[in-house]
Amino acid sequence: MEPVSVPIQPAPAPIVVSFLDFEAFDDDLNAQLKKANDRSVEVEFYSPVSPNAIPPRIERRLAALRKEGGQVGIVQPQNASNTRSVMAVVGLFSGLYNFMKTFEAASNERAMVNSVKDRDVDLVLERTDQGSVIIRKLVFKKRPPESTADTPSPTG
To answer: Which of 44, 115, 145, 148 pairs as cysteine with 30 (C-beta 3.0–4.6 A)?
Structure first.
């Protein structure tokens, strides 16, 4: 029997959205996440963003993502020799609960929550030539389906 060759489909190119700190960014990102299906959506920054000074507009979105069960991952910069700044980012999320209470009242909360409810996000860090760590981009990706391995079968 001859081997069957199956063409490998390349992963679809990500959708790229550039971050600008105004309301139109929220609308654009919501729309892109909604139409992305299985594609990832990358948010790129025009200027360096410190992991210790994440813009409130991004913090609100990360908080909504976590509220909906999403995971926030950290992608370390290459040749990362210390994780202090990464741990500071992780520490930020423990303080987001109180921020979420005020976020609940935002008029566009529902659209934002709906846009991230089935997503996870990676914060991709980069080390600058000066040695500081910045967020290079955010990558919103479709959350993998929950494992059904622990679910008992209906037949017993």
So the answer is: 115
Domain ranges of the chain: 15-142
The CA distances from residue 52 to 59, 106, 115, 144, in Å, are 11, 24, 25, 28
Q: Tokens 């990102």 correspond to what residue?
A: 29
More confident residue, 108 or 111: 111
Helix, coil or strand: residue 92? helix
Indicate the pairing of strand 41-49 with strand 15-19.
Answer: parallel
Are 41 and 12 within 8 A, CB to CB? no
pLDDT (tens digit per residue) in 120-150: 999 999 999 999 999 999 999 999 887 545 5
Please count the other Cβ atoms lying within 10 Å of the Cβ belonging to residue 84. 7
Strand order across the beta sheet in which 72-75 lies? 15-19, 41-49, 133-142, 119-127, 72-75
The angle that helices 109-116 and 56-67 make with each other, rounded to 10 degrees, is: 60
Residue 89 has pLDDT above 90, yes or no: no
Half-sphere CA count of 133, side-chain side, radius 13 A: 22
CB distance 25 to 57 below 8 Å: yes
